[in-house]
Specification:
7 helices; alpha+beta; Cathepsin B, Chain A
């Protein structure tokens, strides 16, 4: 297991988009747009510019046009069948949130993963202050109560000895492992067709067949 991975350090990655998540509860689609930014930059050296209109079309399709969010499982099925702006995944799997070693391995192999978390109110202030997301002193009560700020989906694009590197709301943050353990409730690795270049090989070094075998290890 590598001690640290950060796919945003590859040449070509330049910025993190908002993708309408400041106005709409479209985080389950936005997190995939964030993964596309990172994966395309790592694969080709050119970060994909995902149009907001493509994010909106996908969100409306999954949510039925009602701005009340969407479930990641429904988004995964949509990404496999339709995609966002013509970009699709080939396959997905759900990973246990209790297996941190497998989580790190999946981030390394698949160029990031999708997370579902029950954010506490404390996370809002931590985010606004530019702090790492961590369990507050009060523990899992008061401002630390899971879900007191709401459910959220986001992309994990790296990790180090302290926590996960995540992208959300146009920002890069570290999610400490205590926070992940307390508040994460789902993890989704995917085989993204934009993660694999013309030679059928991903930046992680695996070809498409090896990626399929790797995902099968999870399922």
């Amino acid at each position: 297991m590598k001690p640290a991975v950060d796919w945003t350090t590859r040449p070509g990655f330049t910025h993190i988009g908002m993708f309408l998540n400041d106005d709409l509860g479209c985080c389950t689609i936005t997190q995939y747009a964030h993964l596309l930014e990172v994966r395309t930059a790592a694969d080709s050296g050119h970060e994909l510019d995902v149009p907001d209109a493509a994010v909106r079309r996908a969100y409306d399709a999954v949510s039925g046009g009602v701005d009340e969010g969407a479930a990641l499982i429904d988004v995964m099925k949509y990404l496999r069948k339709v995609g966002v702006g013509g970009n699709r995944i080939e396959a997905f799997a759900e990973l246990s949130v209790t297996n941190l070693q497998m989580l790190k391995w999946a981030i390394d192999v698949f160029g990031g993963v999708s997370l579902g978390v029950s954010l506490p109110l404390a996370a809002e202030e931590q985010f606004d202050q530019g702090e790492d997301w961590h369990v507050p002193e009060e523990g899992l009560q008061g401002p630390g109560e899971p879900g007191s700020w709401g459910g959220h989906a986001l992309a994990a694009v790296g990790y180090d000895e302290q926590g996960l590197i995540v992208h959300s709301w146009k920002q890069r943050r570290r999610m400490l492992y205590d926070f992940f353990t307390a508040y994460a409730f789902e993890v989704w690795p995917t085989i993204d067709l934009r993660w694999v270049g013309p030679d059928r090989r991903a930046p992680s070094g695996l070809d498409l067949d090896a990626l399929r075998a790797a995902l099968a290890r999870i399922t």
